[in-house]
Amino acid sequence: MVQVDKYFLAPTRLIPNSPQPLLHYKALLSESDRAPAALHELLDKNDWITQWIFRYGPTQLSHYHSQTHECMTVLSGTATIRFGVADTDADDLDASTWGDAQEEGGLELRARPGDLFIIPAGVAHKTYNTSPRAEFTLLTPGQGHGIQASNVKEALAMVELSGFTMMGAYPKNCAHWDFSTGAQDTGNFEISWKVPKPEKDPVLGTLPEGLVTHWKNDT
Question: How far apart are CA 166 and CA 55, in angstroms?
Answer without folding.
Answer: 7
